[in-house]
Write a structure and sequence with these properties.
Largest sheet: none
Helix content: over 70%
Number of helices: 3
Structural class: mainly alpha
Strand content: under 5%
Shape: elongated
Distance between the termini: 50 Å
Number of strands: 0
Order of helices and strands: HHH
Length: 107
């Protein structure tokens, strides 16, 4: 039973990490494109974006790798092999959070 709980925890942590990375990369891309179109200058060049991505990858993976499994994972049904890793809920969260961050930057 302990192995199943850890397996479900790893799956959930991978989903959280992918969601985090998609949001960080989408926001960085949109901010760079909007800044380049509106002012002609790019706020972050390619090397700076790679550093930001490296730092965010490291910190995000460390934070999610150290998250212990919880008991509520065992109340969920198992995930099938053919089900997508990035669910519709993750896509919804991505769009909402990118929208909020971009609107927050403009205000």
């Amino acid at each position: 039973m302990l192995v199943v709980r850890w397996g479900r925890s790893v799956y959930e942590n991978i989903q959280k990490f992918i969601q985090f990375q998609l949001i960080v990369n989408a926001v960085a891309l949109v901010i760079n494109v909007v800044a380049a179109v509106s002012s002609g200058d790019v706020p972050l060049n390619a090397v700076q974006l790679l550093w930001v991505n490296l730092i965010m990858d490291t910190l995000g993976s460390l934070a999610l790798a150290t998250e212990p499994p919880t008991d509520h994972l065992m109340h969920r049904p198992p995930v099938g092999r053919r089900e997508p890793l990035i669910t519709n809920i993750i896509w919804r969260n991505l769009l909402i959070q990118v929208y909020i961050i971009i609107i927050g930057k403009q205000v």
